[in-house]
């Protein structure tokens, strides 16, 4: 009996470790369906930027994207949209997609469903007031989620978006560091994680990300890659069933 108890305990601990690890694994589907890209090898990339709008770096990034005619997706924090609604509007008017990244950037592993719902609704309202459009894409801060997190997202008629390429631009010492991380992971078909802001304060220096974006787009366009928004990329995945009955078509 002691051995049985030991084995049962070990299995439970292993299961808990496995489940716990998947709260932060971007492409894991364990805690609910989410989008992180399309079939590997397709020459298409979706650049995404978290934690904006950020003055002045979001506007500088828009200049780079416009130069290359490359659409992207911006996951915005409600608190910053309230501070700079004109930047959010500029992003929308430039033809980029906008998603919800929560209002105050909490780690949702530790947030109640009530707190999550409030974070999402407050951000949706801020974005809609700034741009005239209600977002349906959602990315959890830090990528953190737990059982029930995406259920609330779905109830609000939104769809979770994660990523497969992490560029670590929040800690990079140079644009080349960011590019090295991207090159190491890109095979084609990925959603790429970058940042135009920082969740701790407005004005976070993202000059390295802006420069890296310029180089990355040029390099991969030369290789025949196409850049797209997340909503456009979703159209390549007819298996995805959005909560409001649009199937794989979005955007």
Summary, kept brief:
The protein is α/β, with parallel strands linked by helices and 251 residues long. 42% of the residues lie in helices and 12% in strands. Strands 1, 2, 3, 6, 7 and 8 form a six-stranded parallel β-sheet that branches. A two-stranded parallel sheet has the order 4-5.
How would you portray this structure in words?
The protein has 251 residues and is an alpha/beta fold. Strand 1, helix 2 and strand 2 form a beta-alpha-beta unit. The radius of gyration is 19 Å and the shape is globular. It contains nine helices and eight strands.
**Helix count, DSSP H or I runs of 4 or more residues:** 9
Considering DSSP H and I runs of 4 or more, what fraction of the residues is helical? 40-55%
Please provide the ordered H/E string of secondary-structure elements: HEHEHHEHEHEEHEHEH
Q: Kindly name the structural category.
A: alpha/beta
CATH architecture: Alpha-Beta Barrel
Strand content: 5-15%
